[in-house]
Amino acid sequence: MQAAARKSAPCIGGVKKPHRYRPGTVALREIRKYQKNTELLIRKLPFQRLVREIAQLFKHDMRFQSHAVLALQEAAEAYLVGLFEDTNLCAIHSKRVTIMSKDVQLARRIRGERL
């Protein structure tokens, strides 16, 4: 009687499905990981190329000390982290958990930044 109550037969010789975490679990783990460390998250060489490209618009053959580029990178990352914090607060205020471009625009507007 109990054998007939089973919904499906046991899997014999089947392929085991890979383990999957629930949606959001890996994202939360990643957030905790990056909140713990203090290393720079933007790669150094691409950032340095960007700085040189922008500097070319103002003056040609400009040189940078390595510490100057690192200071610019620290400042850029600190700005972005703060902007994302404010953006997240805007999304939470709208009763959402997903940030959208309108949240970034609102955060910049409240900060007094203009394009």
Automatic annotation (TrEMBL):
CDD domains linked to this entry: HFD_H3 (cd22911)
UniProt cross-references to Pfam families, sorted A to Z: Histone
GO CC list: nucleoplasm; nucleosome
Primary residence: nucleus
Localization per record: Chromosome
Domain Core Histone H2A/H2B/H3: 23-110
Keyword list, A-Z: Chromosome
A molecular function (GO) term: DNA binding
Family: Belongs to the histone H3 family.
Protein's UniProt name: Histone H3.2
Lineage, top ranks: Eukaryota, Viridiplantae, Streptophyta, Embryophyta, Tracheophyta
